[in-house]
Design a protein that fits this description.
alpha/beta, Rossmann fold, 7-stranded parallel sheet, 3-stranded antiparallel sheet, 8 helices, 10 strands
Length: about 230
């Protein structure tokens, strides 16, 4: 069951999300641990702010992404590229950032990141936190349909030509390994899809994809959702 957490406004949500990200980045959990970051419009202002703050992150911290478009890493559409100033400010070693190597093409990039995540998890690395968004069509990460939302063969999947891009996405198999997932959703245009996700999760790709994770929170500032908190 997805737990709802409502905030009075976007500023309040952003402040709490920023605090959570800093806690996850800077806490030493006594073992190697990873954060899964998302793209989308909601976290970008927070990433920008964190690129200017003094941060001393855990030496055990690793970073990877919920999904990535097959574009150049310096493109405005690259999740990695948009977060890179924050990563540079964190001083995290490049070997601990699991970037989707989009220069390998769709299939090559998917296999490369799948192998990297598989090796990380099989060497007892944990994924302590994951950030996701929610599309108005009910997708999360780049999981757009029921077949992908039920995919369990690998930790990632390749997605062809969705919203104008080929993409690599984490799979439900990977999402099941994340200790805490927060779906951050802002803006009135997402009200209906949030209510559908809460009431009928298995009708949406996002709900199906997260079905095997019992620690998922949905953070929103949409007033009408407050009644369902």
């Amino acid at each position: 069951m997805i737990k709802l957490k409502h905030f009075d406004n976007r500023e309040d949500l952003n402040a709490n999300l920023k605090k959570l990200l800093i806690d996850q980045m800077c806490s030493d959990l006594g073992c190697k641990h990873a954060m899964m970051l998302s793209g989308g419009s909601t976290p970008l202002p927070i990433y920008k702010e964190l690129s200017t703050l003094p941060l001393t992150v855990s030496e055990n911290l690793h970073i990877f992404y919920s999904d990535e478009r097959i574009v150049a890493s310096d493109s405005k559409d690259s999740n990695y590229g948009n977060s890179k100033p924050m990563l540079d400010n964190m001083g995290i070693e490049s070997s601990k950032v699991f970037r989707v190597k989009t220069e390998l093409g769709l299939e090559g990039a998917q296999q490369q990141i799948d192998n990297q995540l598989k090796n990380y998890l099989e060497s007892k690395g944990k994924v302590s936190f994951g950030l996701l968004g929610l599309g108005a069509d009910g997708h999360t990460a780049s999981i757009f349909n029921k077949n992908d939302a039920l995919f369990q063969d690998e930790y990632t999947l390749s997605v062809k030509n969705q919203l104008g891009f080929d993409r690599v996405s984490v799979s439900p198999k990977l999402l099941a390994n994340v200790e805490l997932i927060v779906i951050a959703v802002c803006g009135d245009s997402k009200k209906d899809i949030i209510l559908e996700l809460i009431n009928y999760p298995k009708q949406l790709p996002a709900g199906l994809a997260l079905n095997d994770n019992q620690n998922v929170e949905l953070w929103t500032d949409i007033p009408e959702v407050r009644l369902f908190r």
